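Input/output pair, single chain:
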Amino acid sequence: MNRYIKPILLACFSLLLLNACAQTSTKTYPHSDIEIKYSVRHFEADVIQSVPEFEGDYLSREQLETITKTKFINLLKENDLLAEEGDVNVVDLDIFVDYSRRFVGDATPFPVEKMLSPIIALHEASYLGDVAIRKNINRGMTLKGISTGLIGDNTELERAATGAIANSLMERLQNLNQYDRNAFAAMTAGMTDKQIEQKRRYTQKQTPTKAQPPGLASDQYLPEELIQQYLTRLAEGSRDERIDFYKQLVGEWNNSSAVYDVINATVLAGYESTNSDTTEEVIWASKALAYSGLERYRSTLDAVMNDNAPERLKNYVEGYLETMTVRTKQAKVVHDVSTMYPELDWQTNQLMNMLNSSDKQLRGNAAQTIYREHLNNERLLDEISDILRQEAKIPRNRYVGFSDFYAWNCRVLGSSGNVKYKALLTDLAENAYSHKVREYADEFADEL
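Output:
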């Protein structure tokens, strides 16, 4: 592309940020001609992407945050709205940029690492000290024209997005400047400059920092007695009993090499057999290998597909291989010993990892398992309450897809019989972002 044309195109794209949905909370104040300036008290960006595995040439979260903040502050300065030292009539701004990176085909099993226009949500608030003047949320914003291919480089595209975000923030600030002036004048009426400066001081509410788990020394963390029990079932059980055991393994998370090596040997020894009973066992043994998520056994399933196995077995294994790809990613999360606690049992540690993952299926499965089997495990219930407290009330892109998970967890806490969680559920019934979560919180608060 001509080097003189490219900057013009980038500038054009930076102006084409479309807003799909806006929400503003305001009151009514008398008109005022007071002059105010703005100070950026808090500026934060969050970046998620629809296909986490893609690691192309994108801006990091820190880069996107810094570049956007710098551009916005420069726009404030250019428009004579940036507060300087000694200014008294100052409104503080808290801004959160929610940036979702998207790709072609990201809703299909075969996404392509070609970026689509990101989806952006802007959370803006103006303050006088601890008192919010207004809060404004703009969701579903996109950078129009990205798919035309005029911007092909990922970094260029994202730098264009930072300009669009800064311009959009400036435009909205200019539209709401009169409101901020009116509110500031009403809230400081009759105050001296010193009183206004004192009023502007705020108490920064710190979110308690969660202690990092100490982790475990070995990735073979499952109890030895459990492994021996499983090995005995494999060695001494009948064919039907072994099949029942494979079915059990499909529904749990186990990373024991000793157990799966035996199952692997069963598949290798029997996958070419024409005996229907043997084939039936190999089908279930293959499924257990796939659902283990242990990548080292993929070569065995590949061998089944490439050799003289019965077609019926191949048809099953073809599907199992696709499942194994998903389960491999999940197994790394479930068996991550760096996030486990030595004082907790292995099942609690697994469920904790699942609850704190970003995988919707893992989180949902954990909530349902706790509901069925662990309603008396206060450590897990405390973890659930922390997650709900930190996530369920915030309209951020990384949380909005978890409303079913939050709703399930309201059911878990409400069904536990533990009254210590009633206050949280009552709060969520009023303040949760999702209507579904508010309904479940309200219903299950009554259970306590």
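Residues 150 and 197 are 49 Å apart (CA to CA). The first strand starts at residue 17 and ends at 18.
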